[in-house]
Amino acid sequence: MNSPPHSWPVIGHAWAIHLLAQALNSGRVAHAYLFTGPEGIGKTTLARAFAQALLCREDTAPCQVCSTCRRVQAGHHPDVWVVEPERGLLRVEQVREVVREASRRPVEATYRVFILTHLEQAHPAAANALLKTLEEPSPRTVLVLTASAQDVILPTLVSRCQTLALRPVPEATLVQALGERGVDPTRARVLARLSGGRPGHALRMMEDAHFWQRRDEAFNLVRTFAESSSRWIRLEAAEQYARQEPETLAEALELLLSIYRDVLVWQAGQSDAIRHVDKEAEIAQLADLLSQEAVRTMAQRIAHVLGQVRTPINVRLALDVLFLHAPSAKTP
Ligand SMILES: [Zn+2]
């Protein structure tokens, strides 16, 4: 007897858990799965939980307490492999290792599970190597691939997998899950809305000890800009922001963007839809002070700068892919 869905350590996606648990119960586990959805939606979390469910021998699998469940969770189980791209690229050597390992018998469990994440970052040769394992599946091996979307990976790969498209988790589900982790209801609503229904994103903000302080600083900055047109203040703020690491800077800019968007939403008369639900008075005030046109332009400018802040990483990825595709002499 396997897994009542609620024992899976996953926020939301009940339908997907149900489907996987059913496959397990009826002994009809597919050879390969593809979980798609945006970053932070819970693809790898679901994949790990599925691996636990496949391997755990307790009646309540995945029980979360047995040695198997705990080792899978910690990434220490010899029959569960999680393979992630290195510096933005899933390389053919990484997949070849999976192919080799996939042909072996389980070390101690009944299945071997291979979780390959971010398949959209797979080099074509890596995707092709993977295709071979999918064409000649070895019994007792389950592959779980994750990707941002279905159409960014090789169609021949997709056709050999059972695809589960994960959608944003409803606000109420996220609020409840955050509440169970000790977040007060109002803050839980803010995190749920800011995350756009992505549990991974919400949990990251929750675990960030300085998140609320940084949000206050972002609100202060927006208010300072609104109340003073001093060039000196603005350039000093720019200097402070420029000192941050790209990742922290991106988060700070995202916070600013979320505030300006809330102001726009308020100005459009949709006050119920703002994300910073605990800052109504402040957003109403800003909506009063600023012109809609100026706020919209600022939001667009922040989005543009955000793209540039993230560029350095993408340049490397673009060059990797570009040069890996450079033509070589034809093989006879
Ligand atoms: Zn267990």
Summarize the structure.
With 332 residues, the chain is α/β, with parallel strands linked by helices.
Structure description:
Helices cover 55% and strands 8% of the residues. With 332 residues, the protein is of the alpha/beta class. It has three domains: 5-165, Rossmann fold, CATH 3.40.50; 172-203; 208-332, Zinc Finger, Delta Prime, domain 3 (Up-down Bundle), CATH 1.20.272. A five-stranded parallel sheet has the order 2-3-4-1-5, sandwiched between helices. Helix 5 (124-135) links the parallel strand 3 (112-116) and strand 4. Helix 1 runs parallel beside helix 2, helix 7 packs across helix 8 and helix 10 crosses helix 12. The protein is globular.
Mean pLDDT across all amino acids: 90
Look up the CATH topology of the largest domain.
Rossmann fold
- Major β-sheet, in short? 5 strands, parallel
Which CATH class of the largest domain is shown? Alpha Beta
Give the ligands present.
zinc ion
CATH H-level superfamily of the largest domain: P-loop containing nucleotide triphosphate hydrolases
| Radius of gyration using CA atoms only | 23 Å
How far the N terminus sits from the C terminus, by CA atoms, comes to 56 Å
Percent of residues in beta strands: 5-15%
Helix percent band? 55-70%
CATH architecture of the largest domain: 3-Layer(aba) Sandwich
Strand order of the largest sheet: 2-3-4-1-5
Oligomer: single chain
User: What is the number of E strands?
Assistant: 5
The number of domains is 3
Structural class comes to alpha/beta
Low-confidence stretches: 1-5
Work out the helix count: 15
Order of helices and strands: HEHHEHEHEHEHHHHHHHHH
